[in-house]
Write a structure and sequence with these properties.
Layout: H1 2-12, H2 22-28, H3 33-46, E1 51-53, H4 54-67, H5 74-84, E2 91-93, H6 94-106, H7 109-120, E3 127-128, H8 130-142, H9 148-169, E4 177-178, H10 179-188, H11 190-196
Antiparallel strand pairs: 1-2, 3-4
Length: about 200
């Protein structure tokens, strides 16, 4: 019955989430109390339950990117959500959100690159394969609204870029890129560093 369905839906919802104290959040981020309060108000306005599921995250993400003239951000939003959802619970809470925002807006280059590596390491095994790198780069390019002919040209461009980038990063030629290889390569190549972190400023 519809009443039973409603009860099931209510059971599936997470309990209303309350974040840690402001002082605790100040210790694990680079934000002060006033900034955390402002960010939390914005977070709660979009997510009254205090947590975000992937479908809601994609919706918020798409609204942001549409305002910035970008189109299909679904695949990229999926990968960003998975990186934020570190415990694979299927939900993001305020701590997940604010810690990532702190890294991307005020973290060191190494912290930003470590986060970016986690984004590219789709299966979380500690290595980035050429296939994973291709998936992420493709998802980034998918956000740009292209004509069919432009899309075909971009497909070739993606393959060329990924092949060159992967060869440069995989210094020991074992077919995977480690975090150390990733950071070393990005640190020593300004062009790569900029290209790998191009969307950091607008991730959230």
């Amino acid at each position: 019955s519809s009443a039973d369905d409603l009860e099931l839906e209510e059971l599936e919802l997470p309990p209303r989430y309350r974040p840690e104290s402001i002082s605790a959040l100040c210790q694990i981020t680079r934000f002060n109390e006033a900034e955390i309060k402002r960010l939390y108000r914005g977070f709660k306005a979009e997510c009254p339950s205090g947590v975000v599921r992937e479908d809601t995250f994609k919706l918020i993400y798409s609204q942001f990117f549409m305002q910035n003239g970008l189109a299909n951000c679904g695949p990229y939003a999926h990968y960003v959500f998975n990186t934020l959802d570190q415990d694979n619970s299927g939900i993001i809470n305020f701590e997940d959100f604010i810690q990532t925002l702190s890294i991307l807006s005020r973290g060191s280059l190494e912290e930003k690159l470590t986060w970016t590596f986690a984004l590219y390491d789709i299966n979380g095994d500690g290595y980035v394969t050429k296939e994973e790198m291709t998936d992420i780069v493709t998802a980034i390019y998918d956000m740009v609204d292209l004509t069919p002919s432009q899309a075909r040209a971009f497909d070739e461009s993606i393959k060329t870029k990924v092949d060159a980038l992967f060869q440069k990063m995989d210094t020991n030629r074992d077919g995977v890129v480690t975090l150390e290889e990733f950071i070393d390569c990005c640190r020593n190549d300004e062009v790569i560093s900029n290209s790998m972190t191009i969307f950091d400023a607008i991730v959230l």
